[in-house]
Fold each of these.
Amino acid sequence: MTLKDRLVEDMKVAMKAKEEGKVRLSVIRMVRAAIKNAEIDKKIEFSDEQVIEVLAREMKLRRDALEAFEKADRPETVKALEEEMVVIMDYLPQQLSEGEIRQLVQETVIKIGAQGSKDLGKVMGALSPKTKGRADGKLVNQVVREMLGA
C-alpha cells in the first residue's frame, strides 16, 4: 500500500470516527491537498519518496509556526499545532535520534574529508539525501556546524 493510499484509508476511518477523528481528519485533508498541489505543479504522480518530502515540508512549517506561537505566548495554538504534528509523524519514516544524526555527520565529514566551516555546504549536500524526511534539517545543520567548529 502506498503512502497516498494509506492517507485515503485513514481519512475514511477518521470520517467514520466522527468527533474523535476531527483533528486527524483535518490534518489528513490538509496533507492530501498539499500533495495534490505539488503534483499539479510538477505535472507528475508522486512516489512515496516525493510524498515524504511534502510531509516533511508540512512538518517543518508546523515546527516553525510552533516556535513563533510559543514566543507569542499562545498556548491554545501551540497545543493544536502539536496535535497536528503527531498526526503527520505517523506518516513520516522513523525519525533519527540526535545520536544517529551525530554518527551520520561524523561518517560524512570523514568520507568527504571536511576540514572546517568552509566545507559546510559539501557536508550538508552529502547528508541531505540520507536525512530527508527522517530528521529536522535545522538540527542536522546545527550538529554539522558544531562538528566542523563553525
Amino acid sequence: MEKTYSSQIKRIGELCFWLGLVTELLIVIIDKSAYINPFEGQLFRLTFLLFFIKLSLTKYSTKEWLCILVFGFIMTLSYFINERDETVRVIVFIAACKGMDIKKVMKVIFWVTMAGCATLILLSVTGIYGTVSVTADFGRGGTGEQLIETRYVLGMGHPNALHCMLWLVVVLAVYSYADVLKWYWFAGFMAMDFVLYFLTRSKTGAIVWALFILIAFAMKYFKICKENRAVYILGALLVFGCVAFAMVGSHVENTYYTPDSLMHKLDKLLNGRYQSCYAIEAARLENWKLFASPENTVYFDAGFVRLAYWYGIIPAILYVGMNFYLLYQSFRKKDFVLFAMLVTFSIYNLMEAHFISVYILRNYLLVLMGYYWYQPFAQKQMFEGYFWQVKQILSVKRGQKR
C-alpha cells in the first residue's frame, strides 16, 4: 500500500516537472521570436510552482534537505536585496531535478528546442511571421566607422542569436546521442557551422561551435584525450582564465583614448565589449557587491561580468564553483560532452551573456547541476523522506551523531 502511495506521489511530481520544463522551453523560444510575450511573468510563477511541487513530492536525505535549505536561504536573501526572482527559481529547479533521467530530460530539451527553432525559421522564410535578414551597422566597423551589413536572422531577431540557438541545438544533439553518433555526424555539424557563418557572420558563434565539435570529437575518438587528467586540468584552467579575464576587463580602464594598452588591444578583438562594461560604474570590479543592487538592470555583453553585476559576488561564486564541480564530475564520469560544454560555455560567456538571463533553460548547465548536485549523497545508503517527515529525518540525524 505504501509503495503504491509513494509511486503515485512520484508520478504527480514528475508530471509537474515535465510541464514546468516544457513551459520554460517554450518561453525561451517565444523570447527569440519577434513576439512580445505579455504573460511571461505569470508563466515564470507557474513554472516555479510546478518545480516547487516536484521538490515537495521528492524524497531527500537529511544532508540533501540541509543543502537545499542553505542554498535556498542564500538565493532568497539575494532576491530580497536585488529583487531578481530567478535566483530562487534556479535553486528550486535544480533541487527538483533529483530523480529525473538526465538523458531523457536532455532529449526532451533537444527535441522541443529544435522544433521551436525550426518553426521560427519556417515562419520567417515563408513570410508568415518574423524577419529573414537585417541590414544595419552592427558596430563592427571600428572607431568612427560605419559598416552596413546584411546578415540573416531567420526569425530570431539577431544574427548572433540565430547562430547561438542552432549551436545549442547541436550541443543538445551531441549530449543526447553521443553514444550512437558516428564521425561523419561531427563532420556534418562542422559543415553546418561554416554554412551558417556565411549567413550570420557571427564570429563568436562560429568559433564556439567549431571548438565544441573539435573537443567532443577528440575526446570521443581519442582515448588519450578522454582519459588524460591533464586535459581536464587544462579545461579547468581555461574556465578559470575566462573568469579572471572578465574580472580584469571590468576593472582596467579600457577606452579608445588609450589605444596602446593591452586590454584595449584584446578588447578590440571582442568589439569593445569590456569597454561597454567599464562604462557602467556598478559593473566595474571594484564596485561589485556581495549581493547586487536592484538598480543594476542594464543589459550588456560579457556574461561573467553581468553575472556579478546583476546578482552579486556570492551568487557569482556559487555559479562558478558549480562549474568547477561539474568539471570534476566530467572527469570522474568521463563525460566528454559535459567537459566540452563547460569549456565552450565559459568562452562564450566572455563575449555574450546568453546564459546569464531570466530564462532558466537558456543555460543547460543548470540542468546538469540538477543531476549532479545530489550524486555525492546518493552514493550512500541514507534515509530519505518528504518535507512532512521532518521528525523522522531529524531523528535519523541524531542517531547518526550518536
Amino acid sequence: MKRYFSLLICALLCIGITGCSKESSSTETQVSNKSSVTESTAETSENIETASDEQSDIKETNNNMIDVVDKDGKHIGQIPFNSGMTLTNKGIFYTTAIPVETISDTIAAGMNEGEKDKFLYHLYDTKTKEIYSFGSIPDQDYEAAYCRTELNGKLYTLVTTGNAMDKEPDPLLLAEFDLTEHTINQYNISDNGFPYTAMAEVNGKLLILNHDQTDVLNDKLCLFDPESKQTKQVMQFELNGNTGDTIRTMNSDGKNIYILRLHFEGYNNVAMFLDTYDLDFKKISEKDISAMLKESAGKNLVPEDVLNEMKQMVSRFIMMDGKYIYYENFSTTRFLGNIEDGKLFSETEGAGDMFLASSGSGNFFFYCILGGGRNENSIYEWENGTLEKTVFKADDDRYYITAASRSPDGKTFVRVDYTNPDDRNDTLPTKIYYF
C-alpha cells in the first residue's frame, strides 16, 4: 500500500498548488464557463475481472475481522479489516487490497516488473449477513472513494488506471456496481484523466469533474446519464500561465448546483468562489468565500501555509439550506460557516474544525474529533442551522469515531477505535455500529 499512499500524497501536493499538468508543473487556470455540449456514448468495458476470476487467482492472507454490532452493542456479524467503507441500502460496501506477493506462484511468475496490487470490491449484506465479492478493475491505479454515489440501486465511483506518476495520459473511468446482481460495469469518461476528481448527483444524473492533464489545464464538467449511458459536457474552465480558474469540487441540494472555483491572478494571488447554478447550468450568483477559508486555515499557520491551504484539493463539500457551507480539504482545513454573514461556527457552538462530515448518499451528519484524550463518540444531526447531538454512544467512553456513513434509506454506521497515545498496548477492538 506504500505506493498508493505515496501516489495520493504526491498527487495532492502537486495538484494542490496548481491543478497539476503532467507535462508542466507551473500552469494554473482561466474560466471559460461555457456550456459547450459534447455528447458521446460511454462504452461498457468487457475486461472486468469477476469475483470468480479472483477466487482462482488470489488468496487473501489477512484474516483479521471487525465486529458489526447494533446500537446497543449486540453482535450482528463480522467483516474483514478493509478500507473505503461506504454504507448503501444493501449494506456496507468496502475494498480490500491484495498485495502482489499474495498472488499464487503460477500467476506471479507471469507478472511484469512493477505489477500493481489488486483492489477487490465487496458488499456485506446487512440482511443476509453474507459477503458478496464483485471482483476488481484491471490495471486500477487509484479510486476516488470520497466520490462514491448511490443511485437507483447502484453505487458509482471514479477510478484511474495506468500510472498517474508517469507522463502518459491515464483513463478516468466511472465504475458502476450493481448492489443486487453484484456485478461491475465501467464507462470511459476521459482518456486524459487524473486521480483527483469529483462527482455529484444532479436531477438523477451524475455530474463528473475531469481534471484534464494538458499544458493548458482544462477542468471539464460532464453529465453521465445512468439510463442511456451517455455523457454530455456542460461546462469547461481553463487555467493558463497562473491565470484563470480551476474547479475544486461541486455539490447539489436538488434545487441548485454549487461549485467551488479557485481563481488565480498569478501564482500567489488566489481567491475561492462559491458559484451557484440552477439545474440547467445557468449561473445565478458567485460569492468570494476566501476570507472564511483564510480565517479557518490561519488559526495555526503562517501566511505562506494559509495560501497553500487555499490551493488544496477538496475532499468534502456540503451546502445546507442554501447559505451554510461545510468545507474540508485533503490537508488540515475544515470549517462550517454561514456564507451570508461570513461567520464560522465556533467550537463553543459545537462545530469548528473539530468536526467531520459523514460519507454516503444519505442525509449527512457530523462527528467530533477532540484529541488529547478527550474522546467524543456521539453524532450530531444538522437541523435548521444548528447541530443537534443524538443519543448514540459507544459502549466504552474511550472509543472515538474514525469513520461514519449513511445510506439513502436512513441507515447509519460508525466505526470506532481506541489506542492509548501513551501506551500502544492499551487498545480496544475496532467495532462498527450499524443502526
